[in-house]
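Lecture 7 notes. Example A: sequence first, then its structure tokens.
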Amino acid sequence: MPPSGLAILMGAGPASGAGIARMLASPAHGNLAVALLSRSGDANLASDVSRTSEGGILKAFQTDTSRPQLDQAFTDIKSWAESIDKELKLKLSIWSIKHSHRTPFLEETAERFDESLNVYITGAMNFSQLSL
């Protein structure tokens, strides 16, 4: 059965991300083609999840949360989705990144704090805008 739509998962790691992707891609559950976005773009993760989701369609894309990187990832995802089905529409986008920022408060600097905000907040805004 061809996928009924497209899902984009930002923060596709081997734990939570893989579990979410497995259910979304499974023909018996979500039946969506799933684009796995992560810093590593691990193709093995997409292959493993495909196998354990009873043949779901997934592809890994490497990106960070910066606008230029996300622009490229979304362009690549669009091409991939069109190669599956010209009419495949985005049904779901999930922002699920992990960004460890564990600086003790009294040792924090404005620059490090701003970097963390940029990854989380600005990245989420960029991802959301591109999803729409």
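Example B, a different protein, same format:
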Amino acid sequence: MPAPKPSFLGPLRPNTFRPPRGQKKVYLPSFTLTLLRTPHSPPHFATFITPLSLNKLDLKDYLWHAYGLQALRIRSYVQQSKIMQDKPTAKMPRMHRWFRPRSKKRMTVELPPDQPFRFPEAPTDLSPWDKHRYEKMQRAKDDAQKEREEGPRIGPKEEERDKLRMQARELLEGKRVWKAGWMDYGGVRPEQARV
């Protein structure tokens, strides 16, 4: 005789369990969400970079309480960073000392079709955000990085070579008259000049 089935177990129905929404109270969040611009995604999908400790239910509760957005589905994946030689903040990077930067977690939220999210157009005038200053700092940083990678340089730099070449050409063509540097002080050597 077969054993009787317990009465509390009913027939299993797929996808009938829905976790309660809005049970976790978020007053002041201690995490940062970064909304990514994804032009290739449909308008009812939003992609975020989230902390590694944030799970799908936390994001769902946060979007519901903070913005009143209902999240139908959430997909998440952890994107591992590439391995680098030594830490990027090291003053003198060492060879064969491997370092993997912290991974990033991305979550894609599917919103209801009647609530599409369209990213605003990118601004064309970036002067309020000091774009020219940022580019200048970036160029200086890239130049310093290039000099560090090349190692110690013997001889003058390219800009200095060009200046010296122009001065030599002017002297040979007679456009400029050569005089010693100490002649600028009125014929008195700099060490003899009184200040």
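Note on Example B: The mean pLDDT is 80. The CA atoms of residues 65 and 82 lie 36 Å apart.
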